[in-house]
């Protein structure tokens, strides 16, 4: 039985697939551990290093546009809302989203999915002209050639967290999209302590949105958009050889998730997903096409608005993934 090399983040709801207790029909599985998983994205897109790999969804869409031989399976292992993902520098004077115009905002790379989601929210919900923001980056995009003129590169090796604390940028994204990594990207993606948010805007970094969870839930209830943060991609040559592989993978991922839910129906072992389950009133990580159509269409639209995808790029989810049997899961 041929083994598939599989690179995924550390997800309990995928563990049964990784350890073999839920089989992928017709295939064995050999885990390739990359931590954090973001380190595998470029290796997959540029070198097709793995048979199956989790990817950032914007990177996957851009890879499709560039005819990279990858095929998607509608398994979205991670989700998160983003109103809480921007911190403002102490003394920056930023109080409302429009105050970001004319400012310098740190993000790991322009095309990271968090950046696309947040710019989409800022633009579509709050009327921010994101082209009037200077985006300060310290890493390369996985797929290059789409960077606009209002992007500035950090060249002295300092992290975005350092620049935020020093007041040399006015705001920055949190986590792997910004201040959650120490040093330059070439240092091995070492995690760093996030700058602690302060209640006093003059005492330290503070959140742009104080009631982020409430705003995220309200946005979801109004729009049906639930931001995707991972998608499973397979080397296209393997799909040509075995057209049933996408369905087999989807079935195994869905079965693996069901096992996790059966043992922890309230997601208590994964508190963020548990909180998001309460926000959306149901499954915090739905798989399949129908449940994710609004989110996929929004991500394509935001990417087009930001110049990352061409205007004629398809937004129909059925054109973005392999043909297969994908019942809601």
UniProtKB/TrEMBL annotation:
Domain SsuA/THI5-like, first and last residues per copy: 58-139
Annotated SUPFAM superfamilies: Periplasmic binding protein-like II
The protein, known as: SsuA/THI5-like domain-containing protein
Species whose genome carries this gene: Actinacidiphila reveromycinica
